[in-house]
Amino acid sequence: MTARLKDDQPIFIQIAELIETSIADETYLAHDQVPSTNEFAKHYQINPATAAKGINLLVDQGILYKKRGVGMFVTDEAKEIIFKKRRERFYDHFIIPLVEEAKMIQLTKDQLINWIEEELKYED
After folding, report:
1. Phi-psi category of residue 5: left, alpha or beta, with phi > 0 → left and psi -120 to 50 → alpha
2. Cβ contacts of residue 98 below 8 Å, gap of 6+?
3. SS3 string of 57-119?
């Protein structure tokens, strides 16, 4: 829990995304226990109800499950659920605007694909 909270997004969403990112990067694996609402509240100096709202959001989405009296744990399906959500968000937030901008500046499909392929080469 080292990330700082931002002012431009609801805190409970940020708590949920912090947990999601920790699951996506395998800081937490299936059946690992995640920090409690009180730990989040103390670390980020927020209301425990706000932290609980973020955690419960992940429970509702099937990413976390509750063990009564013990805490919250990562489900077997958590990583795939998170990747599916983030792929959809990636498409909406990056691909659609990219294609719209490319059309506006009359960039050809081949040029766009070439640029993406060139950029991907640098990561190999």
Report:
1. beta
2. 112
3. HHHHCCCEEEECCCEEEECCCHHHHHHHHHHHHHHHHHHHHHHHHHHHCCCCHHHHHHHHHHH
| Tens-digit pLDDT profile for residues 62-93 | 999 999 999 999 999 999 999 999 999 999 99
15 Cβ contact partners less than 8 Å away, ≥ 6 residues apart: 40, 44, 46, 50, 51, 53, 54, 55
Q: In this structure, which amino acid lies at residue 71?
A: G
Greatest extent of the chain over all pairs of C-alpha atoms, in Å: 59
Distance from C-alpha of 88 to C-alpha of 109, rounded to nearest angstrom: 22
